[in-house]
Amino acid sequence: RLLYDMDCYRVDMCVLLPAFGMNNDINRQLVEKYPDKFVACCSAMKTARRAVSGEEPWSAQAAARAIDELLATGAFRGIGEGIPANSAGRKTLSQTERLDQIRPIFDLARKYKVVARVHTGLVMGYPMTHHYWPESLHPLWVADLAVEYPDVAILLDHGGMQGWWSERTVEEAWTVAAANDNVYLECGYYWTELYGKALRDPNIGPEKLVWGTDWGASVP
Fold first, then answer.
1. Three-state DSSP state, 78
2. Cα within 13 Å of Cα(124), Cβ side
3. Are 147 and 180 in contact (CB under 8 A)?
């Protein structure tokens, strides 16, 4: 299906992400089978599943170890979609607590010189809390990380707009991107006016925009 759609819309290459219910193995196989069509990012999918099933408690350190092993293979170009979080957690996270969870993952992005993808924005109808990916609600939280890791390319998944009409999280994502040379925006859900604002901003412009979609995921 993806190869068919890429051909229809003249898309030369896609970045494959392991999102909810997906895995790294199938993406790696696709990259190996179609090296001229795909590259892939990775995430700690097995760690997340073990936490949800109750096999072992989730920790940022365990997630980092899993990603370290994946990046060491040389088969992946980035981390994400989003930075690993405790999908089984029910504890409200403060900004300090969440950034401390993210830093070990950014350390790996620096070590392997790959992109770190941070999830921003949310789809209405799916409840979003401060238990998991609170940075989706507060893209400005990424500002501290962008300054701490100036040598890490940070891509804000969805550019603040995942699937709604409110522009609050978009404005926050733009603020972080405009203030930091190492922050980029994936903007597949932008409508014309949003593209226009970002393109006209001298601190964003086309150099910082990456086209993408939620193909095959929440909004096919």
1. strand
2. 5
3. yes
Which helix H or strand E contains 209, and what residues bound it? strand 209-210
Measure the CA–CA gap between 22 and 18, rounded to whole angstroms.
5
Q: For residue range 51-82, list pLDDT tens digits in order.
A: 888 898 999 999 999 999 999 999 999 999 99
Say which residue the tokens 């088969």 belong to. 75
- β-pair type (183-186, 115-119): unpaired
Using the structure block, give the residue that is written with the tokens 């109750």. 54
Determine contact, residues 58/88, Cβ cutoff 8 Å: yes
Total length of the chain: 220
Rounded-to-integer distance, Cα 13 and Cα 39, Å: 8
Q: Taking the C-alpha atoms of 193, 194, 197 and 203 in order, what is their torsion angle to the nearest 10 degrees?
A: -160
Instruction: Determine if the pTM surpasses 0.85.
Output: yes
CA gap 15, 87 in Å, rounded: 24
How confident is the model over 78-110, as pLDDT tens digits? 999 999 999 887 889 999 999 999 999 999 999
Query: What single letter denotes the amino acid at residue 14?
Result: C
